Amino acid sequence: MPSPIEFYFDFSSPYGYLAATRIGALAARHGRTVDWRPMLLGAAFKATGMAPLPMVPIKGEYSMRDMPRSARFLGVPFNLPARFPISTVAPARLVSWLRRRGGVDLEAAVLALYRAYFVDGVDISAADAAAGCVGALGIDSAEALAAMADPAVKEGLREEVEAAVAAGVFGSPFIRVDGEPFWGVDRLDQVERWLSTGGF
Amino acid sequence: MPSPIEFYFDFSSPYGYLAATRIGALAARHGRTVDWRPMLLGAAFKATGMAPLPMVPIKGEYSMRDMPRSARFLGVPFNLPARFPISTVAPARLVSWLRRRGGVDLEAAVLALYRAYFVDGVDISAADAAAGCVGALGIDSAEALAAMADPAVKEGLREEVEAAVAAGVFGSPFIRVDGEPFWGVDRLDQVERWLSTGGF
């Protein structure tokens, strides 16, 4: 069994969203599954000294133009939310919990949350809004809210994010294929060739 | 006459080098020429607060892996130079001078300098090494050295770089097509579609 593709993403990352809409089908074309790994860019920024894109002079303005253009290029619906960026601790906890819990289509859950934020403008930083996004997948809202408030779930995500950054994950999306790291939605073409050829 | 594609690059930028090997043919496919614009990333870093890739923790290590891999992906010869990054003021002055002077294949000059550094490991930060790279194009070495030491050439480049940063150029490669900005060799696919469709 080939190992799953590790897909790290932050829910406030437009490029993470764009890649999330592609990675499942890409993996399937090569007989792989995806391990959906929520992360928190804030922890990565602390380790690298980098800053959220909108806060970087000049580059931030460029990125505000590049984000919707990249979405149009890929044919993915995208509306820059009125509140951007946001804290993504709540939805990250939700997905971390669902990943450990099992019994749910995690790709569908991730895409429901991403689309709520980047298409419908829902502020998923609020736990109840995040819980509402996965209700249609059969996740009980009260159970999801309890999970997001559970100290064990909080600590679990904290440890996962810490381990990810310690292992070199510094951005979103960040993809690992059999140990090989790829950063950015613009590396999906390299990921595809890597999977086709076993490395180049 | 469609306007030329503005191509900004720093000679110490591996991604600038990779894009430089592609942009001429890409432009020609769409009946365009390239305006080769040397820039200095140091000036952009001052304006954005960004740092040279090798100096950024975690991301720097990733980039050392991504640079040669991206070169292999594109089929472009690449050897990370022993001295990297370097000051690129001398070769930037040389190309700035040649651009104003005319009468030379500027693409050939830029590629000769880039290949000397990123394939043959020549330290083109030295004015005489830079001059030597364009000798085969009929540029007299003494004339080139005099140009790089000419206060008017120095001031010309300084003004060009300042104007570029003021106009939003913050990285290398940075490409403008009819006013639309694209950053990175991984945006060449968007540049190509922009030229094909007139914008998307």
What does this structure look like?
Two copies of one chain form a homodimer. By secondary structure, chain A is of the alpha+beta class. In chain A, 54% of the residues lie in helices and 9% in strands. Chain A contains nine helices and four strands. Chain A has a four-stranded mixed beta sheet with strand order 2-1-3-4, with helices on both faces. In chain A, a hairpin with a 2-residue loop joins strand 3 and strand 4 (180-183). In chain A, helix 4 runs antiparallel to helix 5 (106-118) and helix 4 (89-101) crosses helix 8 (151-166). The first copy, chain A, is globular and about 45 Å long. In chain A, 44% of the residues are buried. The interface between A and B is medium-sized, with 32 and 32 residues.
- Helical content of chain A, roughly? 40-55%
| Main interface by residue count | A-B, 32 and 32 residues
How far the N terminus sits from the C terminus of chain A, by CA atoms, comes to 21 Å
Structural class of chain A: alpha+beta
Silhouette of chain A: globular
Instruction: Please provide the ordered H/E string of secondary-structure elements of chain A.
Output: EHEHHHHHHHEEH
Strand content of chain A: 5-15%
Global Rg of chain A: 16 Å
* Spans where pLDDT lies below 50 across 5 or more residues of chain A: none
Would you tell me the overall average pLDDT of chain A? 97
Which sheet architecture does the biggest sheet of chain A show? 4 strands, mixed
Number of strands of chain A: 4
Q: Order of strands across the widest beta sheet of chain A?
A: 2-1-3-4
- How many alpha or pi helices of chain A? 9
Oligomeric assembly = homodimer
